[in-house]
């Protein structure tokens, strides 16, 4: 019998549109002889629908207008249903689900919220659980945990909008004195480099904070690291494996949203041009960080290799990394001997290994 997979896409997030492209790519590469695919889209205002139309309509962001293929549906938190409720007028029907593949980037999908709902529902799902998802989404929490576990990283500090509004000059001065320039200003809870700015002098710091506060009420500021920015994909549960290491040569000054998804001219180097000893250190760092944060299933671990001394420093952990056509996660494992369709099979198998909490 086929395995019924509920694939979630869209979401109430600044990364809604990226999710559409990722999800369409995932579904296009799932074996229809093995899986019964149930696409469920979540609109930007939080409505959810079972969608039966073409994948092209999803990736081109036209699925919401395809009314003939939309049926209101919700994930049932009642474990007796073990699936979704499809709503038709005043009636509903239960569609049972074997496993959920949440292809939801950013807030309300990657941050533990959806994982909490799926845990309540008793549904196995691809990826990290509630705690790891929330911890890795909040860059300040990730950095604090990395410090506790002795994982090297750039110097950093964090403050909330409340702290900043009370004493903006003091916050800016502390950042300049503690981190120096260049530095990066980031929303603590956002992905795809939304709201991230590289700041090279004090005059631009206030504007960078204002931009980041548009995306979140807490900021993380980090010293700029001169060196290679590399990425390593991790797959598995209790015995995770690390992929080869890749490097992105960004077409912009740094790997921002435009460079990731719009410009299309950033260049991937797989494997990264690193000494084998350094590549091994990156893979070891990726596994250590994955385990320290309690990750399961998959994550992409981003690191720096500092030019001055070759030190490997943790940058961030992405628990639902992109699955677009230029996604590093799938490309890294393809270079490691696991092609995209087989990678999807492995991820679903990892989800089905987990016992509902």
Kindly summarize this structure in a few lines:
The chain is of the alpha+beta class and 357 residues long. The chain folds into three domains: 3-125, Rossmann fold (3-Layer(aba) Sandwich); 135-152 and 226-353, D-amino Acid Aminotransferase, Chain A, domain 1 (2-Layer Sandwich); 156-223, ATP-grasp fold, A domain (Dna Ligase, domain 1, 2-Layer Sandwich), CATH 3.30.1490.
Detailed description of the structure:
This protein has 357 residues and is α+β, with helices and mostly antiparallel strands. It folds into 3 domains: 3-125, Rossmann fold (3-Layer(aba) Sandwich), CATH 3.40.50; 135-152 and 226-353, D-amino Acid Aminotransferase, Chain A, domain 1 (2-Layer Sandwich); 156-223, Dna Ligase, domain 1, CATH 3.30.1490.20. 33% of the residues lie in helices and 28% in strands. It has helices at 16-28, 55-59, 113-121, 130-137, 139-148, 161-166, 168-179, 205-213, 257-262, 276-292, 328-335, 340-353, and strands spanning 3-10, 35-42, 48-51, 70-75, 83-88, 91-96, 99-102, 156-160, 183-187, 197-199, 218-223, 227-236, 241-249, 267-269, 297-306, 312-318. The strands form 3 sheets. Strands 6-5-4-3-2-1-7 form a 7-stranded mixed β-sheet. A 5-stranded antiparallel β-sheet has the order 14-13-12-15-16. Strand 5 and strand 6 (91-96) form a beta hairpin. The longest helix is centred in the last third of the chain and has 17 residues, at 276-292. The relative contact order is 0.14. The model has no long low-confidence stretch (mean pLDDT 94).
């Amino acid at each position: 019998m086929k395995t019924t997979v509920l694939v979630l896409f869209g979401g109430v997030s600044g990364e809604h549109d990226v999710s559409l492209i990722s999800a369409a790519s995932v579904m296009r590469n799932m074996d229809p002889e093995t899986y019964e695919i149930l696409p469920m889209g979540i609109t930007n205002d939080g409505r959810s629908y079972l969608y039966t139309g073409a994948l092209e309509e999803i990736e081109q962001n036209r699925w919401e207008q395809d009314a003939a293929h939309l049926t209101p549906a919700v994930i049932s938190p009642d474990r007796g249903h073990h699936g979704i409720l499809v709503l038709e007028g005043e009636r509903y029907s239960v569609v049972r689900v074997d496993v959920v593949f949440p292809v939801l980037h950013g807030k309300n999908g990657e941050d533990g919220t959806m994982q909490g709902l799926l845990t309540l529902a008793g549904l196995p799902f691809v990826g990290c659980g509630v705690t790891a998802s929330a911890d890795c989404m909040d860059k300040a929490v990730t950095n604090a945990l990395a410090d506790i576990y002795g994982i090297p990283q750039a110097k950093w500090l964090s403050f909330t909008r409340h702290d900043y509004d009370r004493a903006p000059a003091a916050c800016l001065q502390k950042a300049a004195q503690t981190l120096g320039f260049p530095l990066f200003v980031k929303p603590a809870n956002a992905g795809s480099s939304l709201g991230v700015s590289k700041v090279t002098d004090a005059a631009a710091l206030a504007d960078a904070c204002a931009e980041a506060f548009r995306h979140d009420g807490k900021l993380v500021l980090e010293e700029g690291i001169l060196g290679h920015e590399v990425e390593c994909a991790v797959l598995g549960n209790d015995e995770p494996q690390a992929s080869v290491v890749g490097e992105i040569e960004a077409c912009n000054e740094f790997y921002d949203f435009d460079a990731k998804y719009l410009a299309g001219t950033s260049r991937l180097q797989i494997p990264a041009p690193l000494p084998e000893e350094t590549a091994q250190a990156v893979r070891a760092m990726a596994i250590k960080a994955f385990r320290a944060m309690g990750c399961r299933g998959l994550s992409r671990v981003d690191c720096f290799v500092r030019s001055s001394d070759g030190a490997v420093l943790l940058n961030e952990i992405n628990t639902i990394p992109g699955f677009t056509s230029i996604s590093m996660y799938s490309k890294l494992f393809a270079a490691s001997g696991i092609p995209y369709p087989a990678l999807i099979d492995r991820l679903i198998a990892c989800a089905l290994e987990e016992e509902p909490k």
